[in-house]
Structures are given as structure tokens and as C-alpha cells.
Amino acid sequence: MKSFLRYRDLPSFCRSSDMEDPSLQLVIRETQQSTRAQALILNTFEDLEAPIINHIRTRCPKTCTIGPLHLLLNTRLSMKKSQEASSIPQYSNSLWKVDRSCIEWLDRQPSRSVLFVSFGSITILTRGQFLEFWYGIVSSKKRFLW
């Protein structure tokens, strides 16, 4: 696997040094199985990950990109909910269940008064980078949602 995809090409939740880690084992199994496939369908798009997609195509020429599928699903579900309850569509591209416990607090804040900080699902920051962001946000003396 390391010769095909570099360690740093993997999402952070797959970069365990523990070879028994379930997330890493899943990636290893899927990667090994993909070499037997007649074609691959990836939940991404060319402009986002062209270099790695081209690299994958050296091993599996029939690789198709059809993403992001989660947005299609969320759009369809939101449209259905909107038709049923005239609600505002909700979108998320989170890899994990979305924690909405902060919504009550956020709804009580004045409009345009809260900084929203998001690095995405698989961003890697060093301790120094993390602390620099944190100190900057705290020093701004603005309400923030992290």
C-alpha cells in the first residue's frame, strides 16, 4: 500500500501507526480489493483530486469520479423535507454524525456576531498551528464556534 499511495495521501483518521487500528485495516482491505476490480467509482471530482486520481488510473484505468454524492443525497432529502414541511434545507459534508447541540446557543447570539471556525473533517494541524489559531481567535474577543 505504501508504494501505491503515500502515507500522507491518506486521511488523518487512517494514519495510525497501530497496524491493528480498525480504520487503517479498512483502508488496507479496500485498497487490496480494489486491485481486483474491473472499475472503480470514487466519490470525488477531477478538479479536486486530479493528481491522485491519475495515479490510481495507472493501476486501474477504468476509474470514474461521480462525487460529491453526499451533497446529492442531502439535496434530495432536503427537497423532500422542504416539500413536506416547508423547512430550510440542511446541508452537511461531515464524515461523522453532526453535533447540533450548539444551535440553541447560536440562535441566541446577535446576527453576524459569531466567528465560525472549521478546518474540515480531515485537516491536520501541528500543535503550534492549532495554538496560533486559538490565540488569534481568543484575542479577537469575538464570540466563536469552533
From TrEMBL:
This is Uncharacterized protein. SUPFAM superfamilies: UDP-Glycosyltransferase/glycogen phosphorylase. GO terms for molecular function: quercetin 3-O-glucosyltransferase activity; quercetin 7-O-glucosyltransferase activity. Belongs to the UDP-glycosyltransferase family. It comes from the Eukaryota.
